[in-house]
Design a protein that fits this description.
Layout: H1 3-21, H2 35-43, H3 58-61, H4 82-89, E1 91-95, E2 99-100, E3 104-106, E4 112-113, H5 115-127, E5 130-134, H6 138-143, E6 152-158, E7 167-169, E8 174-183, E9 198-202, H7 206-212, E10 232-236, H8 239-247, E11 255-259, H9 260-268, E12 273-275, E13 281-290, H10 297-312, H11 315-323
Parallel strand pairs: 1-5, 1-6, 9-10, 9-11
Antiparallel strand pairs: 2-3, 3-4, 6-13, 7-13, 8-11, 8-12, 8-13
Length: about 325
């Protein structure tokens, strides 16, 4: 090759190298270059809870200024927190009652429906995971010590001082009055008329505690009404079994105490009860986690944020009106 040819080849090589170096492909943009950020965004999973929807004001969506469903635990959070385990598994296991309509009900086809079910599904959606329902006895839920069988309870658990010793609670997601009824056969029409009578309640419920005189509600709830003098109680495993027992002809009790929503559903279905008196107390119901379970400070904070967000954006009000015949039980006014 001639000397002139060598110079020409060298010049061509330098021009090619200069052109390749000007592409910026291996240099992060410092002034808002659009190519790299666009590629990153397009590769993010659409169900990743850390990605805010277009137009979302992430600063106002959460008091901490983080986006809804923040993936912080998987990006520098505590890898031992239950939130990280849930996100890694892609599933949150939720304890709920299979026979407590309209809050929750297991249908013959194996699916669930109800207010609590819809709330749990929305929580899972905002966490970016699927939901798996578990159906332990209510007494097992409120006793704590779940041994990892489920992650949270979205099962209309009333916040009480005793339960706060074994469970951690979010802020309430709704509120219900506790309504007393009497069986049609008893002929009783007033709360005082249940003096000396037997009242059916679900086992280890706030209704049982009220009749025992041991109920201490938390969160500034008003004081309960006095128990009818001499009234006693019998328990079944869940509230609605009292309605089923009366409908089947059992007569060992004259009253039934449950949430106003459960009472209304039973009476509408033809169960033989009448409401008597005003509600005997008002209860705040919240999502619960197990104090004895895995570390869950980050999960607890995220659940609280989601419940707060669902109050603020109207989701809880809409679900309440859907399942409780137009009633918004998510507010106390």
């Amino acid at each position: 090759m001639s000397h002139r040819g060598s110079l020409a080849l060298l010049l061509g090589t330098l021009l090619v190298a200069g052109a390749c170096g000007g592409s910026g492909a291996t240099t992060p943009p410092t002034g808002g270059g659009s190519a790299a950020p666009t590629d990153v965004a397009s590769e993010a999973p659409t169900d990743d809870p850390s990605v805010a929807p277009s137009g979302t004001d992430t600063a106002s969506a959460s008091p901490s200024g983080t986006a809804p469903g923040s993936a912080e635990p998987s990006m520098g959070g505590d890898p031992d927190d239950l939130l990280a385990a849930i996100q890694d598994a892609g599933v949150i296991r939720v304890a709920t009652d299979p026979a407590y309509p309209p809050q929750s009900e297991l249908l013959p086809d194996g699916t669930f429906e109800g207010f609590d079910i819809a709330v749990a599904e929305e929580i899972a959606d905002r966490l970016g995971v699927e939901v798996q329902f578990e159906t332990p006895d209510f007494s097992e839920v409120v006793a704590g010590g779940w041994a990892g069988r489920f992650d949270v309870s979205v099962g209309s658990v009333t916040v009480t001082e005793d339960r706060m010793e074994v469970l951690d609670f979010t802020e309430p997601y709704y509120y219900t009055p506790a309504q007393m009824t009497a069986t049609v056969e008893s002929g009783i029409t007033t709360l005082e008329g249940l003096a000396g009578q037997v009242i059916c309640v679900g086992e280890t419920t706030t209704y049982q505690f009220w009749l025992e005189g041991t109920l201490v509600l938390a969160g500034g709830a008003p004081d309960p009404a006095p128990v009818p003098e001499g009234a006693t109680f019998t328990t079944l495993s869940t509230d609605t079994e009292c309605a089923d027992a009366a409908a089947s002809g059992r007569t060992e009790f004259q009253g039934w105490l449950s949430s106003s929503t459960t009472i209304a559903t039973a009476i509408e279905a033809g169960d033989p009860f009448v409401e008597v008196g005003d509600p005997v107390f008002f209860e705040a119901l919240a999502v619960a986690t197990d104090k004895e379970g895995p570390a869950h400070a980050e999960l607890q904070a995220e659940l609280d944020r989601i419940i707060r967000e669902m109050h603020e954006d109207g989701t809880l009000s809409s679900l309440s009106e859907e399942w409780f015949d137009g009633l918004d039980l998510t507010v106390t006014e």
